[in-house]
TrEMBL record, chain C:
Organism ancestry: Archaea, Methanobacteriati, Methanobacteriota, Stenosarchaea group, Halobacteria
PROSITE patterns per UniProt: BIOTINYL_LIPOYL, LIPOYL
Organism: Haloferax chudinovii
Keyword Metal-binding tagged: no
Membrane-spanning segments: none
Protein name: Lipoyl domain-containing protein
Any matching Pfam family: Biotin_lipoyl
Keywords on record: Lipoyl
Domain Lipoyl-binding as annotated: residue spans: 4-83
Amino acid sequence: MLIYNREYTRTPTMVSVTDLRTMYEQMVTARHYEERLVDEYLVGKQPAFDISAGPIPGELHLAAGHEASGAGVCIHLRDDDTVTAPHRPHHIAIAKGVDLERMTAEIFGRKTGLSRGKGGHMHLFDPDVNFACSGIIAQGCPPAVGAAMAAKKRNTDAVAVAFLGEGAIDQGGFLESLNLAAVRDFPVVFVVEDNDWAISMPKDRVTDVQNGAQRADGFDMPGVRVDSDDAMAVYEAADEAVMRARDGNGPTLIEVQVHRRMGHFMGDAEGYRPEADIDRAKQRDSIERLAEDLRSHGVTDDDIEEIRERAHERVEAAISWAKEQPEPEPAEAYENVFTNPPAQAATDGGAAADVPGDDGETGGDN
Amino acid sequence: MATESRDYTEATETDRELTMSRAMVEAIAWEMRENEEVFYMGEDVADYGGIFSSTTGLLDEFGRDRVMDVPISETAYLGAAVGAAQAGMRPIAELMFVDFFGVAMDQIYNNMAKNTYMSGGSVSVPMVLTTAVGGTYNDAAQHSQTLYGTFAHLPGMKVVVPSTAYDAKGLMHSAIRDDDPVVYMFHKRLMGLGWMPSPSGPKTGVPEEDYAIPFGEADVKRPGDDVTVVTLGLHVHRAMEAAEQLDDDGIDAEVIDLRTLVPLDTETVLDSVRKTGKLLVVDEDYQSFGVTGEIVARAAEGALDDLSAVKRLAIPDVPIPYARSLEDEVNPGTDDIAAAVRELHE
Amino acid sequence: MTDAVDVNSADSWPDDADDVAEGYLANWFVREGSAVDEGETLCEIQVEKVSIDVAAPTTGTVAERLVGEGDDFARGDVLARVQPSA
């Protein structure tokens, strides 16, 4: 169900079977990807959980249960549209068309990963499809506004989408982004993924509104809450928002109810979360729901199975490829600080930004 | 992997040992019992007990009013802590990762740190800003920093960096009792978390009763005659391991744990440098314009005639990379410290 | 003199970990010979991702520590023995 904050005259959206199939495939890919990453992540970390052990060390925030949001929004986007995502990005990256092999290699910290092993899973950058994600809450919003600003200055009809969690709507950077986008009519869509939990803090303890789309009211911006993680409902809400932006009519705020099927990060025992809440999350499966929608649009079970198999194969291929990739050489740690490194390049243990003294030369030739 | 812990200080002859996180919490709980106006606020500090176990058990004893979960609104809640402190309360506000200071720095360095001065001393800000620092567990550029230099550099806030359970409790008592703002920076890998094994040093004997360690007193964790190693936080333990290796080769390293950056105990460093003439500073913050440069500068100012060799080891001026091989390269290890001491000793 | 009391790991097992047979000893807080009060935390174990404090069953002295810090153990293994004070 879509809850709008104002009255509109809307032309109902017709979703094509092709789009339904595409969304389904992306969602299945995303779900299988996260489930496989659980296995890979836990290698070396059992029985004693040591966060820095194994092929995928560090934190890992998986998006099982969020798939409808990524798929339902990104299906309306082109490669030249910009997407920024938070620390739980994989389903969005997949739906946006990020290079899955290089993304996986990055998560495994390999030299041929998207960021040469320097970024890891929270800092995936794919300029070919204008995707980036970041680890600081709500801080993907201002850059998305900036991409929208650039599109407007250049008179293209490209748009930007910033994804964030429901906890992030309490962060200053988000609120400032809403205002800046609204006052300038920038072509940006804000998509809040509401999974009810900011790590261990339930929404009602920290946010004063139940419906996050109401944040739009304070900024004279259209807001819509998709009350269920139903891919077709997300599709409809996003279709309108993206169209509004492309037509030059400014930003929209969408909130989508999703469900966190796993912990906040891998290793989170979720002791703070009532069993009933976890069970409820597992029962509502947006992927099953979309399969039902596919069937009611005439797609056969064999077709559906074929899509699933293709998705699974793709995930397996990406993981296999990633695991064969070489690790970065230690000396690479000093590279890529600057696009134009100063003449005196960084050396072992040295300061990467050393510049020659008296001759005052800076930013030498590469 | 944790093994038998070692006692560094003579005051730790007790029957029980605590991890650094439990020692910190013990001090906080004691102060909260003593004074109703002490309270803790932060993200996930209530039911979760703090992401790095900074408040485990406090919710059960003190309730949600005094152990407050706050929205993800650092500017608002850190600024609110400043306001409550100026009203006379004694808040402890937690910045979940020090790397998040960016979204709230105005409240920290322009209000918390400066209001006392800007008011000519007529207001004080008796709050503690606790925050988790440090890397070595592959959390990449935005979640692995220590930023010791950033906070020590800006005037108006005291900066505390415990490296053991004994120090953590004593420094926390002092921090809460201090009428000035104190930034209490605890290293994630020293907390004794089951999911992030700590080296063997941080778990020490901890007296049951309250005790305060004064600020501005460095601790000579290991006396030695050949080379002075000045360090803090995690690298105290790496330096201690290096010192053991060097001992086998007949090199006697003196390891000084700074414990507080503001105020800084220059005298202890100078005494050591006058004795050994050789100074190595080890820091987990970026090399340029930071802690290592400051210590070397003070040694040069105070003991230039005695100084014959100087070296510094720190994170180079690069964002902290994710991949294990890269992070290991940029964060000084035990072997790096031992090698640097050997170079100085030659 | 009464017998030393076993501190059995099974007594501290988390409720929803019935199917888990292994634990890990994350931290010891007392040594052999340490005096302890009943209820005082002796050690911290980890079962799956849950952290549990194991309490002294009686006031007395830690007679023996049977599982080392950093070691795995099976559910039902005795972690330590405490000699009750007279």
